[in-house]
Amino acid sequence: MKTKIALVSAFMAFSYSFAQETPNMNASMKNYSKMIDSIVVSEKIKMNKELDGVDHDFKQNKITSDEKQKLRADIASKYEETINEKIDAHKTEFEEFTRQAVKDAVLKPLDSLHKDKNQIVFGLGGVSIRMDEDKNKPADYLRTWQYVVALVGTSYTTKNEPFAFLNNNSEFKNTVFNSAMYMVRYEGQLGSFTSPFFYRLGLGYRWDQSKAKYGKTFTQENLTLDTKEFTKGNLKDTHINNHYLFIPVDFKFVLNPKYIEHNGTKYLNNRVSQFSIVAGVYGGVRIASNIYNRYSNDYSKKIVERESINHGVNDIIFGGKLGIGYAGFNVYVQKDFTPTFNNNANLRSKYGLQIGIELLNASF
């Protein structure tokens, strides 16, 4: 009996070890394991009923203690033999499964399609997450949904110097990272299964934040957005926030494509790390803007003022994007072709220029 139980335990461990490599065979092995369990459970139920009968006769003084022990030993021996015979009857089936599993493990190549479907990778560029449990063929990896979180540095330039990032002549304080972007996007392949071209359609939220410099703050007096000296107390923090509904359209080109063959068809392998360049356009619809001031004075250590902006900011922006990426690490530059601020803003630098790093990239 112990030998058969050890055999069943070894079989279950063996079948589990091949669960990822031979999924179809694993299903058959699970059915075989259930059949063995069914035999053992069924026979043990019958055995327990007979043992209960022996115990009942002993309590009724129909048999002696020695007779009880002998009957229990005979019953256990009988059912051990029965279980062994029934398992032996299916021994050939188990051996065939074992031979086929060993053959697949030795002769078949590593199934890279089903290996490590779900991944979390931490790197210098942030976190990359892949949730690919429902993907069964290489073509499934060529179309994905992605959730992206990016840390962004926002600067504003003049029309004549469109790429003067961190311009010292601007009214805005130079800050490397001061904004963010959150987006859901769909990525699909253009052309054949081996094409290195992809397109992306997204919908997200863009938050631009900038500070006035030289101890100044933003104001919208006389229907004009401007900056001025702060005179209410000791200014601790001040910034302007613009919030947009963000709609990007990107095109991606894989620079060093890798390929995989599946069922006689060649595919671009979108599961391996590859270099890519991205170019695209985007549009934004402003949903809110506000001025934030935090300061202290003789009466309070913390006073916070928030004021909605009603003048000087355009409702629509449009621009272009250029970026480069490797695996889940992506860096990009975005340039607004239209000004963030209109003629009701007394500001020299009105055109947004952003540098972003995708800190989180989750693919589904």
Automatic annotation (TrEMBL):
Taxonomic superkingdom: Bacteria
Which keywords are on file for this protein?
Signal
Q: Where is the signal peptide?
A: 1-19
Q: What is this protein called?
A: Outer membrane protein beta-barrel domain-containing protein
Q: Which organism is it from?
A: Chryseobacterium taichungense
